[in-house]
Structure formats: C-alpha cells, structure tokens
Amino acid sequence: MMNIFSEIYGTYFHIAAKLLENAATDEKTVRETVLRDGFRDSVLFLPQKLLPGKESWGLLSWDNNGVLRRVTKNPPVTVLTKLQKMWLRTKLSDPRIRLFIDDDVLSRLNQRLADVPPAYSPDSFRFIDRFSDHDDFADPIYIANFRTALSAVKKRSIVDIQYSSAPGKQLRGRFVLLKMEYSPKNDKFRAYGCMLRNDRIRKSVVLNIGRIVSISDTGRVFRTPFSVDEFLSIRKCSSPAVVRVTPERNGVERFMLEFASYEKHTVRDLDSGEYTVELWYDSQDETELLIRLLSFGPVIEILGPEHLRKQARERIVRQFRMLERDDT
Amino acid sequence: MAGFSELIRNFNKTRDYVRDFFIYGCKIRSDFDRKSIRTYGDEKRRVESWLGDYMRYDDSVRGRSVSISVDSGHIPENPLYNAYRCKSFTDNDIRLHFFIIDILCDYKLRPLREIVDELNSQYGMLFDEQTVRNKLREYTDEGIVIAVKQGKTLYYSLSRDTAGDFMREFCGLDDAVKFFSETQNFGIVGNTILRYAGISNDLFFIKHNYIIHTLEDILLPDILSAITQKRWLAFTSVSGSSDTPNEKGQVVPMQILVSVQTGRRYLAAYIPAIRKLISFRLDHIRSVKIGGVCEEFDDFKAAYDHNISRCFGVSFGMRRNSDSVDPIRITFFVDEVNEPFILERLEREKRCGSLENSGDHLYTITADVFDPNEIMQWAKSFIGRIVRIEGGNENVRKRFYSDINKMYELYGGDDDEHIQ
C-alpha cells in the first residue's frame, strides 16, 4: 500500500535532482551540494557517482568545451506521489488545517485530491493521556489570532497583544514573536516571544495562543538581532536536574523513554545498574518537570540542584504526614 | 571499513540501533553483543552520520560510550527522518528515474516502445524493455506516472501534480505542511513534500516531541490497512529483555494507542484464542503481516469500544468482564482560592472518572478503570496532596503507602543532609 521507505525520497535522489536543476554546473558545485545536503560521509561516496567517470550514473557529462552539463533536457519535475497526496488528504480532515487554509481554498484542495483515499482514518489512533482542555481550533477568533501571530513570526513584526494571564487578570503589551510551538500533550499552540518596552527587549515570554484576547500587527518590523537560540538560552536552567534512576520496576527503560525529549547526559554505574542522568530544561517548566519526576516514585531520586530536591522533599514530607494523619 | 555504504536495504536493523542509542542514552560496543563488530561499526557510523550534531561520546574504563542527546522540543526537523532517506537502489533505478521524468515532462502520452527508444537514443545507455516496463509499473503505483489503456496498448504520461504547483495554488498549504511534517503519524511524508517544494520548517517547534516514533511509522501502513480492511494481523515482537523475535500468532488489530506523556505507542488488539484484549508496544514489534478478512471484526470492535473507555492507559487488566472492576477513589487536598490551578489540573487530566467536591478543600476522583496500577503513576504527580486512596485493589494501595515511605527515607525525611 504505502511505501514510505523508498529511494525516491532519499538523500541521493534529492542531491541529484538539485544538480540537474541547471543545464550546466561544475565539479565544485557538485562537491559543495553533496557536503551541504548529504549525510556526513556522502562526500566519500557520492561525487564519483555524479561526476563523469567509471562509477558514474551518467547523469552529468563533459561537453566539448569542458563544461559539466546534465544529460537531461529539462530540470527534473518533482511530482507528488500517491503517498504524499494520501497524506495531504488525511490532513485536510484535521481540525488544525483551518488555522492555515481558508475554507474556499480547502474546498478546492479537497476537490483536487478527491481521487486519492486518505492515508488513514484519524479514528485509528487514540491519544490516551492528552489533556482535555485543548485549544478550540474551530473558533474563528482563535483562528484569526493564530494567523496574526504566525504572520508576525514570519515577518518579525511588532504586535500589540492583550492577554489573559490568569482568570480575571489581563495584561496588555507590545511584543515580538519568534517561533510557534505546539504541544501534543496539551493540544495547544504557544508563541515564543519577547515583551518590549520602547522597542527594547524587556523579558522573554511564552504566550498561549488560546489566551490571547486580541492581537494586532503594528506594521513595524523588529530589527534588533535576536535569535531563537538566544531566547532559549535565556530560559534554560542554570544547572541541570540530576536524577538517579534505578533498574527497579523497569525504571531505566521507562524513565529514558519518557524523558527522551530532553537534552541529557547519562552515566551508568556498572555495579549497581543505576543511571545518573543530567536533564536540561526550560526553567519556566520546572514544576512540570518536578511532578513528572515525582510520578516515578522511589524508582528515581532527584539529587540536584538543591532547590529542586528541596521542593521534592517538601512535597514528600507533606504527603508522608498526610497519610500518617489519615492512618490515625 | 571497506564495503561500507550509507544506504541500507533493511530498515528494521537500523531501527534497533537507533532506538538503543537514543533511548538508553549510553551504550558501549560490548552492549551490542548480539551483533558482529562489523555490523556495530557500520550502524554506528550511519547513526553518527545522520545525527552528528546530537551525538555525545563519553570515555570510561569499559570503553567509549555513544549516546544521542536531542533537545527535541527545540529542533525544526526530526533528525531521525534521515533513516528514511537512505534506502539503497541500483544504478538503473536512479538513471531511469531522471530519464523517464525527463522524457515524460511534456505530458504527452507515450507507449512503452517509444519510451524505450527515446531512452536508448538520447542518454547514451541501453535499457531493455522489461526493465523499463517494470519501472513504469512501479511509478504508476507510486502515482508519478499515469497509465492509460488505448485499445490493447498502455500509454504513459507524467502526473501534473507537482509539489511546487500545489504550494503556489493553495494558499497556506506551505505553512500547514511545515507544521504537520513535524507532528506524529507519518510526519516524514510531509517532510518529503517540503523537500520536493524546496522549503523547510522554520516556524514550528514541537514540545514533548518523541522523535523516535518516526521509526515505528514504518509498521503503521500495514497495521492501518488491516484495521481499515477488518483483517487479521500477524506480527513478531521482542520483549524488553530479549532481542529474539517471538511469534505472536494472529490478532485482530483495533487501534493505535498513543501516549503523549510516556513516549510509548501501542497496538491494541483482540486475541480470540484467549479471548483477551492486549496492547503491544509498537517499538517492540519487529514485523507485521496482513492476513485474511476477520468475519467477526465488528463484534470484536464493539467490545473493544466498550472496554477502552475503562482503560486509564493501555492495560485491559486480567479481567474479561468489565463489570468486575472496582472503582478507585483518590481524594486530594486543594486550596481552591489560592491554588485554582490544581483544580484545573485535576479537571483536565482526569480520565475514566468523575471529580467531585467531597469536603472542605477535598476533591475526590472516582475512576472506573481496569487496571488501577496505571492511575497511580499519574496520582503520584500530586504527591503532597493525596489525602487517601480507597477501592482499586489492596496491592495498589499498599504499594502507594510503601512508595511514600521509601521516598520519605530516600529524601532524608525531615532532615535531608543534601539540603544546606
């Protein structure tokens, strides 16, 4: 049925297609393209396949003037495969598609793809532990706010935002938005950005799109160089969480899998089978990290940093006393 | 390392290695004793090539360990998509790909003979008719080439649907594909569309991003086909501690269960031979094979739909009859005025049950679940607030009390020497 693992989507085909875009090229461009778009070692294997010679695929040849030319007449056409169209067709029934595409365009796209079946039915999947208070992707206000935020990310324009920071609490301010973030756990979109004062960065923020009351583009572009990497480094914890993980109850595998999405450094104690893991995290997400760690019970121990261990201990002591009281 | 190739024929072998490197965080060569040193070296070199920026090396007395460390919430593209980009092929595969597309890009209909003649006259290479026919048949199946029968002859032309045209014609599609290409379930396919269109995701990050799932997507097409077509499914899998695949016999596939918090995905299936619903981890499944149509599929599915509503996670427990489940009642302390966010958390995270105010600052969740064990990991994320646990079963309650005692000791009770 669907063949995802096919050479037509492969890196070698991709590089060859790029080089066949132009009628003429040169050896340097071939090597540079392989270096840029290939795997780390492709430069050892691919140039001799692309350039004329004994091992060549014969896609390029030297002309009488010593110019390297493609043997094809036309630039390669990248035809969408049935698999790609089936995937697109599936996504058209996803409620989030309306965040990007207007209804009339969606209707035309549906017609265009009417002769291919969806790749799968969304009902074939069940998200067992997704939170129930997800964003309302069908809400016209949400869609409008999302689009303004997305456009601001693309243009780096300065936006005025009125934001509901907590029930009954609103803040208003001027922001530059850097990136959109989606969480499958929360089924929510957020925007990374900075609050501005007098066009200067005051603080980094992460805004829930669902909590934006109003957003308008000022039409002015934020020109101060400030990268997403800088944003992330500001928010990164000053020292990593250090966690000891024991093999009890399959703890190592469970822990490693659950925390696979974190930047981490792992050291294994060969005698005990225990792992010591350093996890780097967004300091704003510290509570989320703490409760996830606690949910592993005694299978893991938070060794540091001190303030994180202290928070864990306070909760555990409170819990211990609560059960003591209930027992009596 | 003579004979090394960046390209692979067998996806599953690479899948094992990447998973081990990625999940366990640290592995040394001797941990991979099931494979030859040569295989280990080749696989390691491939993984390093794809994930160079994310590899970490640590030297210890036992040897150099290799691990992968990706802050996957802050990457524009899943680096493991590279695993799909290294399928091996023959020299003729790549030649015919570009030559056939070159011939057909005027969108005229041509019979096989004419295509073979053009191939042989224009590109300085000879291809036999059977090879070209096979490639055209393959590309017709892929949707790249359109085949039309006129009389007794098949005529071929190129599909007019190009990635670039789609992006230009349908406003907003580029951003949508950027987003969906990094989300679950075949995001890799969206990524191939972006590459075809010459664009990449520069807008979205995915939080709680389990990028390893993409490696399991290789299994999903057959599983999903079996579900859609109401067929039996045979598969082999390994258990966590063994690398030898076990036959699992015939199952009736029901649904793919996705945990967005633990990083696991499962195949939920019914096994008529033992009259049980069981969830199998996708990352443990090695191969699947679609079987014949299951006549009783709808009956099994109805039973599954009834039962799944009582799964807190993926466990159907040991009971055959859902009516024998004891509801578990967990009571939490919540200061509604100063901590409204705790109530919000309980409300949005509860599953299979109800939340009620059961006293002053007390809120009780009653959950009617097959396997009370599953709810306890979640409950422990509320440590410091759990006033009492009732129902479920005794072992679960005992284990919770014992866990809290152990944690109390582990963290030094009231006097933790770690805290200055």
The radius of gyration computed from the alpha-carbon positions of chain B, rounded to a whole number of angstroms, is: 27 Å
Mean model confidence by pLDDT of chain A: 93
The shape of chain A is globular
pLDDT < 50 stretches of chain A = none
CATH fold category name of the largest domain in chain B:
Arc Repressor Mutant, subunit A
Evaluate the radius of gyration of chain A.
27 Å
Largest sheet of chain A: 5 strands, antiparallel
**Main sheet of chain B: which strands, in order across?**
11-10-9-8-12
Based on secondary structure, the structural category of chain B is: alpha+beta
CATH topological fold name of the largest domain in chain A: SH3 type barrels
End-to-end gap of chain B: 54 Å
Alpha-carbon distance between the two ends of chain A: 63 Å
CATH architecture of the largest domain in chain B: Orthogonal Bundle
Count of DSSP H/I helices of chain A = 11
What's the CATH class of the largest domain in chain B, please?
A: Mainly Alpha
The secondary-structure class of chain A comes to alpha+beta
Element order of chain B: H for helix, E for strand: HEHEEHEHHEEHHHEHHEEEEEHEHEEHEH
What's the helix count of chain B? 14
Shape of chain B: elongated
Report on the structure:
The complex is a heterodimer of chains A (328) and B (420). Chain A is an alpha+beta fold and 328 residues long. Chain A folds into four domains: 7-70; 82-123, no CATH class; 140-235, SH3 type barrels (Roll); 241-327, Alpha-Beta Plaits. Chain A is built from eleven helices and 13 strands. Chain A has a five-stranded antiparallel sheet. Chain A has a four-stranded antiparallel sheet with strand order 11-12-10-13. A three-stranded antiparallel sheet of chain A has the order 1-3-2. The radius of gyration of chain A is 27 Å and the shape is globular. In chain B, helix 4 packs across helix 5. The mean pLDDT of chain B is 88. A five-stranded antiparallel sheet of chain B has the order 11-10-9-8-12, with helices on both faces. In chain B, strands 14-15-13-16 form a four-stranded antiparallel sheet, covered by helices on one side. In chain B, strands 1-3-2 form a three-stranded antiparallel sheet. Chain B folds into four domains: 11-69; 87-211, Arc Repressor Mutant, subunit A; 219-308, SH3 type barrels, CATH 2.30.30; 325-410, Alpha-Beta Plaits (2-Layer Sandwich), CATH 3.30.70. Chain B has helices at 11-24, 37-51, 91-104, 112-122, 129-142, 163-169, 173-180, 187-197, 213-216, 220-228, 297-308, 340-349, 372-380, 394-410, and strands at residues 27-28, 55-60, 63-68, 110-111, 145-150, 153-158, 204-206, 231-237, 246-258, 265-271, 276-281, 285-293, 328-333, 353-359, 362-367, 386-391. Chain B is an alpha+beta fold.
